[in-house]
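[step 3/7] fold_predict: job queued, chain A
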Amino acid sequence: MVGQILGLIALWFGVGFAVIGIVGLLRFPDVYTRIHAAGKVSTLGLVGILVGAALLMPEATPRAIVLTLFAVVTLPVSSHAIASAAYQRGVRGKNYVRDDLSAVVETSAKSEHDGAT
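[step 4/7] structure written:
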């Protein structure tokens, strides 16, 4: 009985974070804040759902553990890759205060250009 209650709480935790991520995708103004909402919240949402599934179905616990580890490793990396690709394509954020990556990108591009000649 306690395991079922904890499983349902974990499921609702995961679903709640998934809903927050959807609201973030709809409400945030630019691609970078949307990626942040989708990346962070989807990881927590999926982990909550997997923990709830593991508590409600003990026979699925090994699969839930493997999926949780896979999600925790790959979801942040994919969010970073999408944000990096958007930045390199010239997608600018809304209401930038400063751009710390511009100096890094310019230095990297210059060193690549100097090495190619």
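[step 5/7] annotate
Residues 2-116 form one domain.
The chain has one domain: 2-116.
exit 0
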